[in-house]
Specification:
With about 150 residues, the chain is α+β, with helices and mostly antiparallel strands. The chain contains three helices and six strands; from the N terminus they run ααββαββββ.
Length: about 150
Amino acid sequence: MPLALTIAILESPISNESESMNKPTYVPEYNAIVEVLSKYNEGCKQARSSLMKPAFSEQATMFSVGVDNKLSGGAIQNLFDGIDKDFRPSPEARSAIVRIDIAGTAASARIDTNDVSGFCFTDFFHLLKVEGKWTVISKIFHTHVAP
């Protein structure tokens, strides 16, 4: 499935030089982040944590705020356990990377997923580039009933 991509990255901090405003940079970084997030999407699509694990740091965390407005989550292993045990995506489920923001060796991203067994998810990812490789260090998600 094609990914919905939006990005607005400037070559340098805001300046008076108008010609620098139209020169996108970080294209290789952007593509590398898309590759990492695609591992997550593929793991969700196939309900196999082994496909998504390479996208995450071993120390990564996952959090959400439940209907009771309480924070829940913890180690990313909780996500992997849930994917392997309980997760059954709908054949109609679709997801798209809708935003990636990059600042040096840090990045954030958003993925929207619809109709996974009657639910929709909005996932927010924080990534760091460590030893030349982008990796997810945290995932925050919001679940809501599919329309």
